[in-house]
Design a protein that fits this description.
InterPro entries: GCL_bact_plant, GCS2, Gln_synth/guanido_kin_cat_dom. The protein has 454 residues and is an alpha+beta fold. Helix content is 41%, strand content 15%. The protein has one domain: Creatine Kinase, Chain A, domain 2, CATH 3.30.590. Strands 1, 2, 3, 4, 5, 6, 7, 14 and 15 form a nine-stranded antiparallel sheet that branches. Strands 8-9 form a two-stranded antiparallel sheet.
């Protein structure tokens, strides 16, 4: 592949990802914990009921295997992939689709396939943002060289990096942009509004076998992972935001690795800009390829990141119904011109410092007190609840205007209903789990293993 020697090529590559509006698609990435029903332990890689065996059996559904050094580490099929996170968390990286009905069908098929295999192998599936009881010392690291590089690097840049790798699961969404200005508009809206749905759909109240007293312990962990590449990215709110300035910012973030001959070379802490000059001691004289650059962009882990598309990364892993509600929320806002325009107007006075302050409170904020949480300087609304109601209404209107209907004539707005119910009841998934834990379950987490399923 052609070597990259100047930053202009990097900015040009991002610009080439722009799509016509009619070709803008929706993609999902869903992570979940897989455990043994018999002892409630996370799966190890090897063994008759391990991760390797699960991936091997999954090929009966037409998936093709992916290997690293002869280790089966994933599956792929028709633009989709099933991959492994460091401690065996299983991720569906779905195909991009034109509407939410197709997204739902893909996610439902994935759940049904996984459920069939889980029943056959005695496995459980858990959709939570943070491991409720498992500690990181007990996990089995997956045989992927990149993970072992990150394992050594993470403790140098944050106190919870290893927890992020081994004990978190997320639900992510991918959306396209039509132009540089469209990218800027969508990036600002998603970065500014993500805090609202992170509160509404918080889904990780437990850690180390007890109530963490937070609604999203996962969000707390991410804020203490690596300040160079996590949380709010202030550049997004600057008038200077562009493909070029994003490249410049990305070049400031230290590298993890590059892949050579199927294995990742440890470059943790090195500079991509130095590699463009052939100045890395590990690879003397060697300059990066465009694939290396795309891999580097994939190590930036802000709440929203830019690569071939915009990737929204802020939410805990969720049930199918809540996953679809989040997908509907963002589709209605980002893929309808009127809704996007109103959302831009709503956030135009957003002060990035105050947004960052709110972002750092999100782990503890619940829907129960959302009507009393001030958003002054962030949104023109009386409270967090009022802001959430306003933008959810924008999403609903946008979905209606899209007029994407299923075989029964129902439009995409039907998928938004679970989020609307949360707003009406002022009860996030995390708050619901805590209520059950304290009262019906009487402090016992065992029922969670039966109920917190994808």
């Amino acid at each position: 592949m052609q070597q990259i020697t100047d930053t202009q090529r990097l900015g040009d590559d991002l610009a080439q990802q722009c799509r016509p509006k009619a070709q803008c698609l929706i993609g999902v990435e869903h992570e979940k914990f897989i455990f043994s029903r018999y002892d409630k332990h996370l799966l190890r890689y090897a063994g008759g009921a391990g991760i390797h065996a699960l991936l091997a059996k999954w090929q009966r559904f037409g998936w093709q295997p992916s290997f690293e050094q002869d280790n089966l580490v994933g599956l792929k099929r028709e633009g989709a992939a099933i991959t492994l996170e460091p401690a065996g968390q299983l991720e569906l990286s779905g195909s991009p689709w034109a509407d939410l009905h197709a997204v739902y069908e893909e996610m439902l098929e994935h759940r049904l396939q996984l459920s069939e295999l889980a029943d056959e192998m005695g496995l459980g599936i858990m959709a939570l943002g943070f491991a409720p009881q498992w500690n990181r010392e007990a996990v089995d690291w997956m045989p992927k060289s990149r993970f072992h590089i990150m394992r050594g690097y993470m403790p140098k840049v944050g106190v919870h990096g290893l927890d992020m790798m081994t004990r978190t699961c997320s639900f992510q969404l991918n959306f396209d942009f039509c132009s540089e200005q469209d990218m800027c508009d969508k990036y600002r809206v998603t970065m500014a509004l993500q805090s609202l749905v992170m509160v509404a759909l918080a889904n990780s109240p437990f850690a180390d076998g007890r109530d963490s007293r937070l609604n999203s312990y996962r969000n707390y962990v991410w804020l203490h992972t690596d300040s160079a590449r996590c949380g709010i990215l202030p550049l997004v709110f600057s008038p200077e935001l562009s493909f070029t300035t994003y490249v410049q910012r990305a070049l400031e973030v230290p590298m993890y690795s590059v892949k050579r001959n199927g294995v990742h070379v440890d470059l943790a802490g090195r500079s991509f800009a130095d590699m463009m000059q052939g100045a890395l001691p590990e690879l003397p004289g060697e300059k990066p390829t465009l694939k290396d650059w795309k891999d580097h962009l994939n190590t930036l882990m802000h709440d929203v990141r830019l690569k071939d598309h915009l990737e929204l990364r802020g939410n805990d892993s969720l049930t199918l119904e809540h996953s679809m509600a989040l997908a509907a929320f963002w589709t209605g806002i980002l893929y309808d011109d009127q809704a996007l325009s109103k959302a831009l107007k709503f956030i135009e006075g957003c002060d990035v410092a105050r947004l960052n302050q709110l972002r750092h409170r999100l782990s503890e904020v619940g829907m129960a007190e959302s009507a009393e949480v001030s958003v002054e300087g962030v949104y023109p609304a009386e409270s967090l609840l009022a802001a959430l109601k306003y933008v959810t209404a924008l999403a609903h209107e946008g979905l209606k205007r899209r007029q994407k209907v299923d075989v029964d004539g129902a439009d995409e707005a039907l998928y938004l209903q679970p989020l609307q119910d949360i707003i009406e009841q002022r009860l996030s998934p995390a708050e619901r789990w805590r209520k059950l834990f304290k009262h019906q379950w009487q402090g016992d987490l065992s029922p969670l293993y039966r109920h917190a399923v994808f």
